[in-house]
Amino acid sequence: MTDRSPRLDDMNDRSREVFRRVVEGYLETGAPVGSRTLTRHMSEKVSAATIRNTMQDLEHMGLLGSPHVSAGRMPTQLGLRMFVDGLLEVGDLEADDRRRIDQSMADSEGDVTSLLDRVGHALSGITHGASLVLTPKHEAPIKHIEFVSLSPERALVVLVFADGHVENRIFTPPAGQTPSSMREAANFLNALAGGRTLRELATVISREIAARRQEIDTLAAELVESGLATWVDQGEQGERLIVRGRGNLIGEAGAEVDLERIRSLFDDLERKRDIAQFLDLAEEGDGVRIFIGSENKLFSLSGSSLVVSPYMNADRKIIGAVGVIGPTRLNYGRIVPIVDYTAQLVGKLLSDRA
């Protein structure tokens, strides 16, 4: 493996073609692809030995692997990610797939739950995978919010709305968070939550962060100008105020008070940044996204992928999502337009009902 992630630009034309054909062959059959198979399909006439050498180079880059020594090659998770991001050709939605999706939503009567249940059933049948349908986000004011740590990489947010509705959402928390820091974040949010939606809470937190930032800048300005302190990475997430010659501050009560105030403000700023990140993670999601293998924290079963797209209301706000879960050798070129079209159609139908 190299010190940095490989890129398509690192490959010559032959390496790129071998890589593309191995991945496409694997996605079609689910089996490793051998050098002799590739010799029959390459655009230039090359020997099986030359292709084997190219495959070894791609294996060294971490893009291909083999189940055992004598087998052909298959893409690694890194290889699949590179293929999906740089070489995947997304086809047009097939007419039969469009017809079946349209039929599942032809009867728009009944409640939203029934409609989304039909959507999930249709997606599962069309793609032969498991479907994922997240119901519309609730926009009522928050009554209570709680964060529960499930593991270092998974947490649960419990949202209790003023109208009695309750939602549980799983997310990946910012690195380094502890159960106590999550309780502190929840307590802070609950103190502000009265009558506010999640989106409004995020706006309030942003204002708090800006206010803390301004207080720090004002208090630090005199210390910096006097040469007693200097900024490092000012304005960045990892910014620090380095104090020089602490001995010079002894006896200068005003400077010491300012310093303690600045330290307190920095701590408060970091807490509010973490809380803002919690809210962002509970709200985020845009466009069709593909999660391969362990990239997918919620469905990180061995050999699984998730293709998911949010759907929006008439105000272009994300209110839910639809997706397909299946093996990593999904036909991504076909699945992506299916998920994209379904999400757009669900968003339109729900907007029309509003």
TrEMBL record:
<dbReference type="InterPro" id="IPR023120">
    <property type="entry name" value="WHTH_transcript_rep_HrcA_IDD"/>
</dbReference>
<dbReference type="InterPro" id="IPR021153">
    <property type="entry name" value="HrcA_C"/>
</dbReference>
<feature type="domain" description="Heat-inducible transcription repressor HrcA C-terminal">
    <location>
        <begin position="114"/>
        <end position="336"/>
    </location>
</feature>
<comment type="function">
    <text>Negative regulator of class I heat shock genes (grpE-dnaK-dnaJ and groELS operons). Prevents heat-shock induction of these operons.</text>
</comment>
<dbReference type="InterPro" id="IPR036388">
    <property type="entry name" value="WH-like_DNA-bd_sf"/>
</dbReference>
<protein>
    <recommendedName>
        <fullName>Heat-inducible transcription repressor HrcA</fullName>
    </recommendedName>
</protein>
<keyword id="KW-0678">Repressor</keyword>
<dbReference type="GO" id="GO:0045892">
    <property type="term" value="P:negative regulation of DNA-templated transcription"/>
</dbReference>
<dbReference type="GO" id="GO:0003677">
    <property type="term" value="F:DNA binding"/>
</dbReference>
<dbReference type="InterPro" id="IPR036390">
    <property type="entry name" value="WH_DNA-bd_sf"/>
</dbReference>
<dbReference type="Pfam" id="PF01628">
    <property type="entry name" value="HrcA"/>
</dbReference>
<keyword id="KW-0804">Transcription</keyword>
<keyword id="KW-0805">Transcription regulation</keyword>
<comment type="similarity">
    <text>Belongs to the HrcA family.</text>
</comment>
<dbReference type="InterPro" id="IPR002571">
    <property type="entry name" value="HrcA"/>
</dbReference>
<keyword id="KW-0346">Stress response</keyword>
<dbReference type="InterPro" id="IPR029016">
    <property type="entry name" value="GAF-like_dom_sf"/>
</dbReference>
